[in-house]
Amino acid sequence: MEKPFDFLLKNGTLIDGSGSIPVLADVAILGEVIAGVGQLEGASANEVIDISGKVICPGFIDSHTHDDHAVIKSPQCESKITQGVTTVIVGNCGLSLAPVRLDREPPDPLNLLGDQKDFSFPDFGSYVERIDEVRPAVNVAALVGHTSLRVNHMASLDRTATEAETAGMRAELRSCLEQGAIGLSSGLAYGTAIEASTEEVIELALEVKESGGIYATHLRNEFDQVIEAMEESVEIGHAADIPVVISHLKCAGPDNWGRSQDLLDFIDHSPYRDRLHMDCYPYAAGSSTLDLKQVDERVKILITWSDQHPELCPVYLHELAAQWGISQLEAAKRLQPAGAVYFSISEEDMLKIISHPKTMIGSDGLPNDPHPHPRLWGTFPRVLAEISREKKLISLTEAVRKMTGLPAANFRLSQRGLVQCGYFADLVIFDEQDVTDTSTFENPVAAADGIEMVFVNGALACADKALTGVRRGRYVGKQP
Ligand code: ZN
Ligand code: CU
Fold first, then answer.
1. How far is the CA of 27 from the centre of ligand 2 (A)?
2. How far is the CA of 288 from the centre of ligand 1 (A)?
3. Average pLDDT of the residues in 333-342
4. Considering every ligand atom, which ligand is closest to the CA of 363?
5. Are residues 283 and 364 in contact, defined by beta-carbon separation less than 8 angstroms?
6. How far is the CA of 30 from the centre of ligand 2 (A)?
7. Residues with CB under 5 A from ligand 1 (ion)
8. How far is the CA of 247 from the centre of ligand 2 (A)?
9. Most C-beta atoms within 10 A of its C-beta, which of 101, 339, 419, 452?
């Protein structure tokens, strides 16, 4: 007699992640993998679940996260799993938890990932081992941060690296790639990397080619010089002959509202377009540490945390400045170090960028923020609900592709991102009409509605917003 399946999910509407049209199908799971897809009459299973009227699709891949430490500290990963996210890409914006060797508090914005004590992975391999030991609820693949490498090899970050320092960084990057890192990330807009020359980054990117990795970049400029910064990212990718992901693409600041079409034209007309992708979150506000350069009286800023005045947060900077009788810039100085949500993006631009076929969905959520931007809990359901169902800017099939098949291909996550026999059983079952994000700027910590079941590596991790407590995630970067 044939061995029964572990789960048989019957009569769902299958959206397989490739962009193909939905079909009615049964999906069977055996162990960690998808063992059957199609009309599976007569199949036996330990658990048969009727999912008529529901969508079944691959688990979502969060293309852009800062969950490096969160997956270890809070391995239940509630903010992710309740959205249907089954894999996170960590190490973005030049900031990776590993490898980092610190003899002081992490410089801003590396402090987004944790305190000095949290940076306990002097080499990349020990991070991978730790993930596999902890078994977080979600799978993890990691980029190596350019800024993290700079911290390890440079005494001061306010200049470009010397030849010897660059060689040191490159050698360390090589060993990370050998130990399973999926590529290099940069955060060239930040003070910790803005003085790095393009050549410094190219030198490191050259190391990525051999491993088949990717270059993901928080552009040097997301404001007036955003096109020049995009040109730089193409120059780096081209010089190293590797694919490029532009992180959280946007044209920020009121002076740049309306420029999204220029950005997308740049991508569509670039000779490098076949190897160029981007990620985006479905909100008209960004978030990071509080950057004095971004204090602009025309832009609303919500202070989410402050080391100097934790008792005041969350608070709007303009309200606080009025109360204190000083300028917003002065108030910002008094709050630092601090975290902020900047309402610096136009909704129309965001909608245009997120709907582009080359755009993946990435939350850019900040898990250590006590009052996080709602994208941490709401990104994926919000794309399904707002962008697809309500605004009808993209089909549901296309929304799912941007969250599954497309990132799996770009980050080379093998046997993930599609519903296919032999692929890992990372699956989401959701109600197309009910799925809705519930987190808001006022109340950001809230699980989405309508995500009914989430499987990770064949195990049920979440049902109707409740975590089962079963954690089957693992490191899924390039296996050495
Ligand atoms: Zn960033
Ligand atoms: Cu980021």
1. 35
2. 8
3. 97
4. 2
5. no
6. 36
7. 93, 218
8. 7
9. 339
The CA 173 to ligand 2 mean position distance, Å, reads 20
Nearest CA among 74, 444, 100 for reference residue 287: 444
Q: Which residue has the tokens 């529901």?
A: 54
Between the CA of 181 and the centroid of ligand 1 the distance, in Å, is 19
Smallest-distance ligand from the CA of 362? 2
Kindly give the distance from the C-alpha atom of residue 145 to the centroid of ligand 2, in angstroms, as a whole number.
Answer: 11
Q: Measure 188 CA to ligand 1 centroid, in angstroms.
A: 9
DSSP 176: H
Q: Name the nearest CA neighbour of 131 among 478, 416, 407, 476.
A: 476
* Residue written as token pair 């946007």: 250
Residue-wise DSSP of 84-121: TEEEEEES-TT--SSS---SSSPPTTGGGS--GGG---
Phi, psi of 347 (to 5 degrees): -55, -45
User: Among all ligands shown, which has an atom nearest to the Cα of 219?
Assistant: 1
How many residues would you count in the chain? 480
Cα separation, 298 vs 321, in Å, equals: 14
**Residue pLDDT, tens place only, 121-147:** 999 999 999 999 999 999 999 999 999
Q: What are phi and psi of 474, to 5 degrees?
A: -155, 175
Kindly give the distance from the C-alpha atom of residue 451 to the centroid of ligand 2, in angstroms, as a whole number.
25
- Please give the Cα distance from 440 to 444 (Å, whole number): 5
Rounded to the nearest whole angstrom, what is the distance from the C-alpha of residue 7 to the centroid of ligand 2?
A: 36
How far, in Å, from the CA of 442 to the mean position of ligand 1?
22
Residue 1 has pLDDT above 70, yes or no: no
Specify whether the CB–CB gap between 474 and 135 falls below 8 A.
yes
Closest-lying ligand to the alpha carbon of 112?
2
Confidence of residue 443 (pLDDT cuts 50, 70, 90): very high
Compute, in angstroms, the gap from residue 364 CA to the centroid of ligand 2.
5
Can you tell me the mean pLDDT for 332-350? 97
Beta bridge partners of 217: 186, 246
Which amino acid belongs to residue 218?
Answer: H
Q: Which residue has the tokens 């693949």?
A: 141
DSSP category for residue 68: T
Place of tokens 């120059």: 235
Is 215 in contact with 234 (CB distance < 8 Å)? no
Q: What does DSSP assign to residue 399?
A: H
DSSP 3-state of 135: coil
